[in-house]
Every structure is written in structure tokens, then in C-alpha cells.
Amino acid sequence: MYIEKINGPEDVKKLSVEEMTQLAEEMRTALLTRASIHGGHFGPNFGMVEATIALHYVFSSPEDKIVYDVSHQTYPHKMLTGRKDAYLYEEHYDDVSGYSNPHESEHDHFTIGHTSTSVSLACGLAKARDLKHEKYNVIAVIGDGSLSGGEALEGLDYAAELNGNLIIIVNDNDMSIAENHGGLYQNLKLLRETKGQAECNLFKAMGLDYLYIDQGNDVASLIEGFKKVKDTKKAVVVHIRTQKGKGYLPAEKDKETWHYSGPFHMDTGKPLVEEVSEDYSDVTVKYLLDKMKKDPTVVAITSGTPTVLGFTADKRKEAGSQFVDVGIAEETAVALASGIAANGGKPIWGVYSSFVQRTYDQISQDLCINGNAATMVVYWGTVYGMNDVTHLGLYDIAMLSNIPNLVYLAPTTKEEYLAMLDWSMEQNEHPVAIRTPGSTMISDGKEVTKDFSKINTYEMTQKGSKAALIGLGTFYSLAKEVAAEIEAKTGTKATVINPYYITGIDQAMLEDLKKDHDVVVTLEDGILDGGFGEKITRFYGNSNVKVLNFGLKKEFLDRYNVEDVLKANHLTKDQIVADIISTL
Amino acid sequence: MYIEKINGPEDVKKLSVEEMTQLAEEMRTALLTRASIHGGHFGPNFGMVEATIALHYVFSSPEDKIVYDVSHQTYPHKMLTGRKDAYLYEEHYDDVSGYSNPHESEHDHFTIGHTSTSVSLACGLAKARDLKHEKYNVIAVIGDGSLSGGEALEGLDYAAELNGNLIIIVNDNDMSIAENHGGLYQNLKLLRETKGQAECNLFKAMGLDYLYIDQGNDVASLIEGFKKVKDTKKAVVVHIRTQKGKGYLPAEKDKETWHYSGPFHMDTGKPLVEEVSEDYSDVTVKYLLDKMKKDPTVVAITSGTPTVLGFTADKRKEAGSQFVDVGIAEETAVALASGIAANGGKPIWGVYSSFVQRTYDQISQDLCINGNAATMVVYWGTVYGMNDVTHLGLYDIAMLSNIPNLVYLAPTTKEEYLAMLDWSMEQNEHPVAIRTPGSTMISDGKEVTKDFSKINTYEMTQKGSKAALIGLGTFYSLAKEVAAEIEAKTGTKATVINPYYITGIDQAMLEDLKKDHDVVVTLEDGILDGGFGEKITRFYGNSNVKVLNFGLKKEFLDRYNVEDVLKANHLTKDQIVADIISTL
């Protein structure tokens, strides 16, 4: 096999076009085998195999610098830059991350996992090159789906002003994670249909040069095109038409499902492990579809990740105009929600914790200053969520909970979540965010009668003394376990509190605790810095009550083991119990 | 005068074109008189007088809903919607805010002060309208300068998918605050030159319908154009060419200076009060221009506000390619800085506190995960800064200080600032942000010898006992005053600490304080929630040391009086002294 002999781009350059075409097939087979066993981003990589080969044939990485947007399509690049073993041999599958990573290779220039960043980052590399009077190519590779993001559009606009070499490869497979949304995709379609000849051209309108390559999965065509733009003196877009999931029939047919895949049976494409248990996305879509039927002003919004709210293709169809995908455009999603709420609609936006930070300013300015009653649901804000450094769910409390006017809620069970959701959708007073708990969804069947309009009122679920445990969201059950263990070990029955509200403190209850408690303990599923617990600690700063805050250290973790991280952060039940007993 | 009889849009509709043209002149005179006495946003309003009259003539606000981007150009709208007195009579000048404001009028739909939001917000109004099966026009008015912002470009892209009425007025005066930057402005120029006929059209490429109005300061042309798009069934851009500062010669000639103006002599255009004292912007540009000459890899970046770093037009020219304006595009500014640093350059980005929040994700992902040594300088992060609700500088500590890997520094004097700046520009280890102090710049002439690479090492500037005062940035001098007052009143010499580092605690020093201090006091010029003081309080949570945190409440203030706010937040010297003495 050719792939076995590729130890770096220099080995690609030795091959003929026929050999590179064969190499592409071998790489696809390796990608398919690895994906079926290991899982990972699928479709984007399958479409980019030939283009990656051609890039390394024409250009000379790492001197020429290639930046991959969101880096979902970075596996072929890794295979050709000294990391093939991680794709060929099962025992090495975990040697590499799923994203571009400078710690792995000099051929990677940034750790990237969020979309729409490549053009602006590449502009930076190019600008530094020009300041230093160096000469080489800087190349950004961006998928069509990422173009709808504000940073990408800003970057395209700025690139024209660089006045230096920059090559922007637009990998157009006519798909985002789901189908594309936004007017610019009509223009990409027009350009594909006219083989790049249409006068009305988004990229030219942004001041960029432009080249179209129709056969984006043909090595020879790509090489020819890339040679034309090599050493360009200004910014140029190379628009290549590729096929997402190319080479694996189930993925070619159902591009959305195969954007990312867990392990699967190669013959059938069926997942090895069927997900059977209900999760917060399932619960949400069920609630919303029912509510939409009763109320035509209810509208669910996604920014390119429709399934976070549970809206698979069939359910999107069912919701009709009451479901909106703005494309990967979180800023517009929040502003849209604010505008809908301002005009009497009932918007709900679902977002992963890792992506909510893409729209801080809009949450603060467009939404919270205006006090519009939109609902946001934040998923996977938990140590039990995604564990790549670019996709952590540990920072949303620190970010959201310090924005004035926002009510950020932390349910602990399915029932609490639905009660909060329903309250939020019906009220007209507050911008509300709800953080779904991590780990397995707990459903206790209890009716929730709490009136959530009484902002910042906590619930004491067990009245005790000496120690009070305030367990937020995911960690409420941990608080209960700790209390039980303390009682078993010391006979002291601790107080247990479900705070519900992340954004404020229940002053009356906290004041009352001073009477018969020596220590108050907070537990939160996120970083401690700027988080929930510190607000409690500040309240008690001038009192004799001691406060212990449990949560995670402010740091960037990468591909961690949950148990190890919990232990390192003193978050196991035994550690917490020991700390409290030593304080009592 | 006609203007005196305009109590609402219905009065505009009664006028003939000739009368409206006369009205425009009257409005301009009133705007000029008010600006010369009161100050405010100047150029944007002067260009939009005729268009605003035509909008209110053709459309029926508030049923038809007009959303003004950044709302710098909202004064004429206010004059025509029942708020003329605030522009005609000096005693009423302060009756209105400088921004669109639903609390003032049903003709304003959002409180807006940040750029690039109007299209997305208007999409929200339109979407709610369609869900409710109502019929009216929704109009976004956006200046050409705001188009470079990510949210605006996202919004244009999404607007095409609305499938309902939306009119986007692009007010093209060929200027941002300074000159425009970005490739899209070449396209606007082409469209102006071809009177909208060029085939290559950014807005059409975004899937939008398009109409060009060449005479954007002619009431009749505008009325004719607006009538054409009224009740459109899909999103349409109306591109109008206007003249920024029209009608006042100094403003027509120097559009940048006259974007915003303080009070001035009407005859000469000279400011009534000359700014003579040096500020942090002056200090920065002086330092940078000198450094640029010695090191060609130093590059200053702005996102549309060049003077924040002190770069007036002459100094931009002096810096040449070592100064970059990316346009109003904070996300790209941060990514660009990260890319430059990654490739061996020395980038510095200057930004107002209120706008740094427009790029949380890029600071976290593009910059801090990658650990690139870019420098950010945050200006006006202080209670003494801008006091409109949309431009507050109270939240940057809560936002930035909880992002891992970032070193956020708080100098207290000019000398400390320059030492930090120089250290930051020369080091290769950390992304660094520096928060310039508020109030008058203090220069004590002291040589700063501290090694800032020793992260999180505070400086004890006065060793005392019982009480320790940690005064951050602006409030360090307050801490010294409080200490002096406590000593005068009680004889107790308190410890005083300059922490320098916002992002971390000096554990050794804090531990040491436990020996002979009963109370530790923190003072910070920002909100307490998620801020600096809470990190100190958490450290002492499990000790006998009491902690008092002084800072601002988490809330949105609007057009406040500093003294009142300080008092309300218990931030006067006397209040703090009393609190500490009662704790001792």
C-alpha cells in the first residue's frame, strides 16, 4: 500500500496522479475501518481526501501553512503528515485528537474545534509572514457550512485587505452538519451550476479573487487548480465541489447522520451500540412539538445543530415554520430570539455549552439589556460531556451567570427541567437560560409545584444542622450522597439544598443557615472561578460560617477521563465527606 | 417652523416634498445647535435626516417597525416621533438617551448601542409577525460601517430565508467611524459607481433583492424608492448613498473627527474644551510608534476604533503596514492577533471594555487554548467610563478573568502600564490583557522593576496588621486612602496590596496574611459577581479570616452619576472605612 510509505508530505510528492488516486482509495478504506471501530467525524473527511493529497502535492507544508476550519476534515491531513499509524492500526487510534493540534505535529498551526475561524487565523499567519518579509503560501480550508458564521464572513471581508498571499479553499459539499441555511448558499449553488462563471459572486463581492474547481474529488483537477493559485500575491478563493461522505454509500445517502458517527457495522452502517435511553434532547422535542401545536407563536431556533433540541429531519418537517435553523450563526440566533420575544413570540434556542460562548455580546446587549423573555437551553454544560479541549462544557456558568437580568436555572431532574421550561416559555419578564444536567438523565416522577417566577428562591430538601450542602444541577445528587455518608459516619444530619437558580442567591435562606450551621458547602459542575459557589462564599465573607466550594479548577482539559478529573478536583464523594468532617 | 408642529409620524405625512425638504433643514439646524452645546453622535445623524423623514412619510411607525443599527443615527427618528423638544430646547436636551430606547417611545423597539445587530433583531420582529399572521413592514437601518461585523453579515445571510417582508436600508456614507476597511467596501463602491447596476452584488449574493437610491439626501428620491419596496413579500436591501455630516462644512470635510463630537464653537468647529491632559491612548501610541521603528514585527490592530490605541489618521500613516484596521470585526481582530503571534509577530489589539465582550469565543478558543502571546489592551473598564447602558465598562473582569490561560493585568499608574505593556509585547508564553485604570491617569514617576513573568505575584506596598486592603487597578489609590483613614481613626496600620494580576491569586501572600490579619478587603472597579474579589474570598472560605468585597452590583446602569453609583454600592472612602472598623 502507498499509505504505509507516507511519512510526510515529501512522500506524497513522489507519487504520480494514478498513484495518488490509489492512495486516496487506501486512505478512504482506512478512514472507514477506523470510523467503524472508533467513531469520529466522518462525512467531512471522506470528501476532502483528494483535496488534501493535492494540497500536499502542490504545496510544501509546514513551510506553506494550512489551517483547517473547525478541523472536522483534518484526518486525511494527519494521515499524510506523519500520523498515518493513528488511522491504520487500531492500537494507535487514540494517538491523535480529532482536531488539528500543534502538539502533535509541526504541520498543524492551531488547536481548532469551533467553526468559522480559519480565514481570520490564516490572515494572522500571513500578516506575520509579510511583516517578517518571508515568502510562502498560507492556506485556509473552510467548509461551506462554516461560511455562515460571523467570524468567517468577517475574515473573508478582511482578507481582501491583506495585500499578500492567502489561499482560501472553500470545500463545498453543499452541507453543513444538517442542510445549509442562509441566502449565501443560493449563490454557492449558482456558482456550482455555472461552474464558477456567474457574475454575481459572494467572494468577488468581498474583494477576493476566485477560481472554481468542479471536480473536487479528482486529484488531477485539484493539482491543476492549486498550481494556478500557488504563490498568488493576493487573497484568492478556490471553490471546490466535493462530495460529503464520498466512498461509503450510507454516508453519501444520509449526509446529516454521517457528519459524525460512533462505531458501526461496516456492511450495514448500523451503529454497534443503539442509544435507547431517553435524554434531554428527546424530552425537549417532545415537549416543544406538543406546545407548537397549541401555540403558533412557539418557535424553536438552532444555529446549525438542530438535534441538540431533538429536531431530527422528520421533526423539523413536523414543526414547519415553527422551527428555524439560522445556519452556524449563534449571534444571529440570539438576536432573532430577542426580536421574536420583543414582538410577542415564544422563542427557544438550544445550544451546546461549548458554543454558547460564541454569542456573549448578543446575550448581554441584544437580549438581556432589553429584558426580552427568550428561552435558551444549554446542553452538555458538564464534566460528563464532550472532553476535547475545544468542546468543554465547564465555562458556561462563569460566562452566563454574571450577565445582569439573565435568569440561569439548573434543574436536577427531567421533571424539574420540564417545569422550568414551561414556566420560561410562558413568562414575559426575564431572559432565561436552562442548563440541562450532565450524566444520565434522572426522572423521579415527582410533580414539581414550585413557582419559578419567585426568582432566587432555593429549596431546602432536607433540614439538618451544622453543615449545609448546596448541590447545583448535576451535583445535587452528589450533595445528597455526601449528606447521607456524613450522617452514617458522624450521626450529623446535614441540610441539603437544591438552589435551582445559578444567577442569584437566596439571601433569606442563607441568612437563616447562620443560626445553626458552621459550614456551608457548594457543589457545581463547572469551573469555580466566576461560578456559583463564589457568590455564596461572598455572602458569608463577613460571618463566622465557613464555606467550602467544590467544582473544577479553571484550566483547559483535553481528552480527559472523568473519574481522574473528579479525583484531581477533589470531587469524589469520599473526598468531599472527608473535607467536611475535618471542618466540622 | 415645521419641526415645532411634528408630534409624531402622522404630522410628517401631512407635508409636501418641498415642506419636508424645509423640515430637513430645520432638523439639521436643531441638530447642529444641540451638538454644539451638548455633544453627541454627529455625522451619522446629519446624513440620515432626509431618509428618516422619507421613512416616516412612506411607512407607518410604530405599526411598521424600524430598527436602527447601533442607533448612532437615531436622533432624526426621535425628532419625528414625539421627542422633538429634546432637540429644540436646551432645557430638554437630556430628556432622551443617545440611543434607541423603548422606554422613551413606542417607536423604538430595542435599546441598542453596539453595532451590527439591526438585521438580526429585525428578522426576529418579522418572524414573530409572520407566526402571528400579522401584516406590516419591518425595516432595519444599517450604516455601511456596521456591515463588516459578523452579526450583520450573519443576519444578511439569514434574512433571505425569512420568506417574509423585511426591508434593509443600507445607509452608505462610505465611512465607518474612521475610513472603512474590508473587501466588501470595494463592492459598495462599485455599486455606487454603477448606480446599483453592477452584476457582482454582495447583497444579491446573499440571496436578497436589491434597490439602489443614488440621491440618499433627496426626500423625493427616497420616497419613490421606499414606496417601491413597501409591503415587499421578501427581504430586500435598499442601498442609499448619503453624505456623512451633510450640512455642516467641518463635518463634511473631516468625517472621522465628526463621527462623535463634544460641545464646540459653531462657527469654527473647534471644541469648547480642549483636551490637554495625556491619557492612556496617548501613552500607548507613543510607546508603539517607537517600538514599531525598532521591531518590524510589532503590529497594532483595531476593530474600527483606531483612536482607542491613540492612532489618529496621521499616526496610522506613520505606522504604515504595522497598523491594521479590520473594520468593526472584533472576532477577526482577536483571531488575527492570535495568528500573528503564532507566526512570530508581536500583535497588540486595543478595545473598549464594552466591546471586548463581542469576542469571548475567539479569546477563549482562537487565542487562549492556543496559548499565543498576543496583547490586548482594554480601555474604559471602569465606573468612570462611558455611562450609557449599552457602553458600560463594568463587566470585563467577570468575562475575561475566568478564561483559562489568559493573564489579565491591572496597572494602577502610567509607569506600571508601560512596564506591563513592554513585558507583554516581549514575552512568548501567555495571552495577556491589560486593563487601563479609570479616572485621571496617575503618573508617579516611579521606576517599575517588577518581573511580570512571575505570574500571580502580588506586591505588598505597606505592611501592617489586622486588616489587609487589596486594591485592584483604579481602586488601588482608594485602598491607600482607606488605609490612611483607618490609621488616623484607630491607630491600626493596615496592610496594603497592589495585586497587579486579575486572573489569579498569590496563594503564598494570602496564606501569610492569615497570621496577623482578621479581615481582608478587596476593592475592584467592576461588578463583584464573577470578579476578582470573589476569588480571594473563596481562598479564605475555610479560614477564620473575614473577607469584605467592595465593587459594583451586577446590574445594568444607565446614564448614571458616578458619585451616586459609588455611594449606592458602598464604595466611598467613608463607607468602606466604617465597614472595616465595624468588622475589626
TrEMBL record, chains A, B:
Record key words, sorted: Isoprene biosynthesis, Magnesium, Metal-binding, Thiamine biosynthesis, Thiamine pyrophosphate, Transferase
Domain Transketolase-like pyrimidine-binding: 278-442
Cofactor(s) for this UniProt protein: Mg(2+)
Enzyme class: transferase
EC numbers, comma separated: 2.2.1.7
SUPFAM superfamilies documented for this protein: Thiamin diphosphate-binding fold (THDP-binding), TK C-terminal domain-like
Family under the similarity heading: Belongs to the transketolase family. DXPS subfamily.
The protein's name in its UniProt record: 1-deoxy-D-xylulose-5-phosphate synthase
Originating organism: Jutongia hominis
